[in-house]
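Hey L., structure's done. Input below.
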Amino acid sequence: MDTNLFAIGMQKHIIFVICAALFFILQFLRTKRWYQLVMAAAFAVSLLIYADSENTRLFYGVGIAEGVLLLTALTFNIVQSVRLNRAEKAKKAAEEAGKASEPTDPPAAPTAPTEA
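Output:
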């Protein structure tokens, strides 16, 4: 492996990929945002470069795959954010419409001031 391919060694790269993939998988389980699974996959795909470091097709194939995965993650994030924002606005509008149709309590009668 060419030592200037990555700024860190293979062992550190593997540890970083495992930690990053676990983080994104746990975040997906917590928030259900699909781009996080794609990012976990993108980190794992970067390890394929170690399969045959001298193969230029593999090298460029991994680069193209990484680019596609990152664009996919970006697209998923934008689409899901727009959908969530629309759903949140619709929920707020429904709550406002529900509040407007509820009868309001009459104002309380004024109390007479007490003299001490």
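Residues 103 and 109 are 18 Å apart (CA to CA). DSSP finds three helices and no strands in the chain.

-- N.
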